[in-house]
Amino acid sequence: MTTTPGQPVADQSAPNTVVLSGRPGGTTHRAVEVLGELPPEFRLIGGLAVMCRVGLPHRATVDLDAITRGLASYHELLAGLAVTSSGGGQYVMANHLDLDVIDIAPETARELAEVLEAVGGITDLELNVVAHAWAHDAATPVDLLVVYGDAVPLVEAKQRLIASPAGLVAMKVTTVPLRASQRSDKRSSDLYDLARLLVTARGMKAQIDSMPEMLSAVILRRLDRWFVEGAGRDRTYRELRKFDDPPVDFDHVADAVAALS
Q1: Of 210, 153, 173, nearest to 10 (Cα)?
Q2: Which of 11, 70, 196, 241 could staple 54 via S-S, CB 3.0–4.6 A?
Q3: What are phi and psi of 161, to 5 degrees?
């Protein structure tokens, strides 16, 4: 496969349909119900996106996260759907479900990378911006179905764009260093999500290879430091001990990281 750096490649492993288990009125039921009402241009990220990409079981998620370009043009629609809107892309939907929408840069990841490389001195925040742009453009459509008990359908959201495994990895790898010390719980959950994504996703190497080199190089370097190198791996192990359902096999994660190089 020949790819142009910065141009997302299709995620050939992306399923057409994802079936999730949920309770009537439960978080998963409510989240997919709200997702089905959102503009089709929105890309799902966050905990529900990870759940869709790694399969169940996975850590619980209590909110809905999305990215889009031109959020201002959707605000009136979202405000009409929401119970409250505090601005900045934050909405509270029915049944106390939080919706956070990130307005990403209008440029593609490749265009952003070219500008930043020309200026030099790239910051972690700028890398995060590039990662979100790449994840947005590499998202793939999925039909989501939530069932209860003996496969009783609860709600369906068809053709929703969901960040690919590599897109989620890019965003999380560039977000971890931005977590303040008081958000150590979020850093730990990001690392747990990364471990699960790395061992369950197929086609990850081709997707990472298609990213701008400034982004892919940082991703590979940080994954190696967090999951392969001795001291970094030990620290990550301690942080992930709070997540044990299912547990992370660090040898499998290290092998998955090695396969990306």
Answers
A1: 210
A2: 196
A3: -75, 125
